[in-house]
Amino acid sequence: MPLVIDIDPVAFSILGFPIRWYGLILVAAASVAIWFAQREARRRGIDAQTVSDAAVVAGAAALVGGRLLYVLQNELSSIADHPTHILMVWMGGLSFYGGLIGALLALAVFARRRGLAIRTVFDIAAPAAAIGQAIGHVGCLIGGDSYGIPTDAPWAVIYRNPGALAPIGIPLHPTQAYEAILLGILFAGLWVNRERLTRLGAGVVTGAYLLGLATIRFGLFYLRDEPAVLFGLKTAQVIGLGIAALAIVLFIAARQGYGDRTRLTTEVFPS
User: Fold this and answer.
1) Any idea of the CA torsion for 164, 169, 171, 173, to the nearest 10 degrees?
2) How far apart are CA 121 and CA 44, in angstroms?
3) Phi then psi for 17, rounded to 5 degrees?
4) Among residues 56, 65, 200, 204, which is most buried (max CB within 10 A)?
5) Domains of the chain: which residue ranges?
């Protein structure tokens, strides 16, 4: 029997400003992710404040990157008439991969400025990102964002609240739940094996995360009602192939010993 979700995406309002469940869960997800990142950073001799600073930078960059890629993909023609709409991130207009790319670039810049090895910073962030994303998808499930195609599977979800982003009254694949579960499994694998992966070289943890993430999303997007853009693949799947390629580059770099994990970024990327 399908699960009926009849939850108002707006949890409550403060002075007329709506506070959405997605935002509250995103805060919880970020808090959990930062806690895990700080724990791993301490193991590597990096203080908690540095992790907190990095989280602020990466979070802001993820928001900007996610919004920009979404607009480029979906709303570029309408922005000229309604330019302020580019700021309305609460309308469900964020691209996951745009946020990921923005966060990676921001962390690379942050690491260099702090004199930290870029791939070491990535390796600290990777498991934390996986658990944060897993929790964040619970917010997507509540609000009906990132919904799947119609299905008659007994575990389908049906949305009843008119504020939901998903179609009302239609049994849908709960792709948000699928992704949350799979990302949770990916996190567990990375966290349990992080020391072993680290011994294989700097960037291996990140490579495993990116490859796992790309694989999960590549498969799940067959259950998302979005148009194909290249060789029958959807935009996220095409980008996912690029993310998987980056993971392979990280594996190769680690195997060849390029940029040993103890080096500072100024040694790997001289000014």
Assistant:
1) -10
2) 10
3) -95, 120
4) 204
5) 3-268
- Establish how many alpha carbons lie within 13 A of residue 266's alpha carbon, considering only the half-sphere containing its beta carbon: 4
pTM score, two decimals?
A: 0.88
> Which DSSP state fits 2?
P
The residues, ordered by sequence, that sit 6+ positions from 52 with a Cβ below 8 Å of its Cβ are 34, 38
How far is Cα 145 from Cα 96, in angstroms, rounded to an integer? 12
Query: At which residue do the structure tokens 């940029």 appear?
Result: 259
Encode pLDDT of 120-134 as tens digits.
999 999 999 999 999
CB atoms under 10 Å from CB of 133, counted, come to 22
Q: Assign 3-state DSSP to the chain and report helix, strand, coil percentages, each to 5.
A: 65, 10, 25
Residue 51: closest CA among 43, 78, 9: 43
Q: 81 CB contacts (<8 Å, ≥6 apart)?
A: none
Name 43's bridge partners: none
Contacts 24+ apart (CB under 8 A), 238-241: 239/97, 240/97, 240/213, 240/214, 240/215, 241/214
Q: What single-letter amino acid sits at 188?
A: A
Taking CA atoms, 80 is separated from 71, 85, 98, in Å, by 11, 10, 21
- CA distance readout (Å), 17 to 84, 91, 140: 17, 14, 20
Nearest partner of 211 among 181, 234, 233, 242, judged by Cα: 242
